[in-house]
Amino acid sequence: MRVVVVGAGVIGAACALRLAQAGAEVVLVDRSGIAAETSSRCEGNVLVSDKSAATSVRAEAELAIVANAMWRELAAELDAERGDGPATEYEAKGGIVVAFPGGADALLRFAEGQRAIGIRAEPLDRAALAALEPDLSPAVELGVHYPDDAQVQPSLATQSMAAAALRRGATVVRAEVTGARMRGDRIVGVDTTTGPIDADAVVVCAGPWSGEVAGRLGTHVDIRPRRGTILVTTPMRQRIHHKVYDADYVGAVGSGDAALQTSTVVESTPAGTVLIGSSRERVGFDETGTLPALAEIAAKATRLFPFLADVQLLRTYAGFRPFAPDHLPVIGPDARVEGLFHASGHEGAGIGLAPATAALIVHHVLGTDAPFDPAPFLHSRPGLQVAA
């Protein structure tokens, strides 16, 4: 079976790898190259800590739990295959979510709901926080430790998955998809800027551009861009030992507000730099005017870790997250075009959810057993159709 995967970011690379491992002939198509867009402009989060147990989005939390376990196996698999160094820079560093005075009760209730669905969430008092993160602001009242939170280097991980797919016979075509090749109601290939490509199935993994690509292929999926910005410090000795963020980050993730929202997320990298985020705003694909977001992020980060006020910045960058209005990714067959599949709408969780997303795509495309319930993520789900 020949499968065209449109988009060579982390979701596309993961789908290409798992489809190739399952015996499909895979053609990975991207206009810019592997990890050239969103997957090179993010932090590499593999999180369960920000996933809510609320009924409306519980399916994503359950997807994250499965994906978290898959990442540990996938990182070991890719490291062993590469042999000459880390293939993903996977770090099982754990996460700490903190609350300033006035926010402790809400954080504890959030963590209690998470524990009920199987997420490990361990409350920390001030003394325990100080032991784990000595440079954390003493104004922090309470924290919750998430031992299963992890991080990868997103560009490296994406390239490693794509390389592993190539070793299993996949090919990469650098081109832009311009239209669908149809036989009746079924897609049988794509037209691109370098020529047509025949296929038995097409999987759209184009991140925030998935809605645009879907339109060219004769359908509609309500995926919109949501801009995020990150600050990167110069390298230093390690003073931050976990992914640490303020509890208001969870609210920003779950909001659909178009206006600028910022929340504090701070973590060290193996290179010694510190990544500081994050922001969310719906401005289309506009890459200008990021200064207000950067200023807010910096101010909030120094409230969490006061020593950062004296640290020099190395660079900043912005990227676009694929945002679905009902806050669930779209994974599975198109509701209108036979042979067309979607894997997008993960917003800021695409890195973390990539392995489980790929497993679901293999199920839908090749008919393998479903690793978990696929229904909440279908293109045909009522929440997405109403939002459209």
Structural overview:
This protein has about 400 residues and is of the alpha/beta class. The protein folds into 2 domains: about 1-80 and about 155-225 and about 325-385, FAD/NAD(P)-binding domain (3-Layer(bba) Sandwich), CATH 3.50.50; about 95-145 and about 225-325, D-Amino Acid Oxidase, subunit A, domain 2 (D-Amino Acid Oxidase, Chain A, domain 2), CATH 3.30.9.10. It is built from 10 helices and 19 strands. It has an 8-stranded mixed beta sheet with strand order 5-6-4-14-15-16-13-17. It has a 6-stranded mixed beta sheet with strand order 8-2-1-12-19-18, sandwiched between helices. Helix 2 (about 60-80) packs across helix 5. The longest helix has 25 residues, at about 60-80. The chain is globular and about 65 Å long.
Summarize the helices and strands and which ones pair or pack:
Blueprint: E1 2-6, H1 10-21, E2 25-30, E3 45-46, H2 58-82, E4 95-99, H3 104-116, E5 122-124, H4 126-132, E6 142-146, E7 150-151, H5 154-167, E8 171-174, E9 177-183, E10 186-192, E11 195-198, E12 201-204, H6 210-216, E13 224-233, E14 243-246, H7 248-254, E15 261-268, E16 274-280, H8 291-304, E17 313-323, E18 330-333, E19 340-344, H9 350-366, H10 382-387
Parallel strand pairs: 1-2, 1-12, 2-8, 4-14, 12-19
Antiparallel strand pairs: 3-7, 4-6, 5-6, 9-10, 10-11, 13-16, 13-17, 14-15, 15-16, 18-19
Helix pairs in contact: 1-5, 1-9, 2-5, 2-9
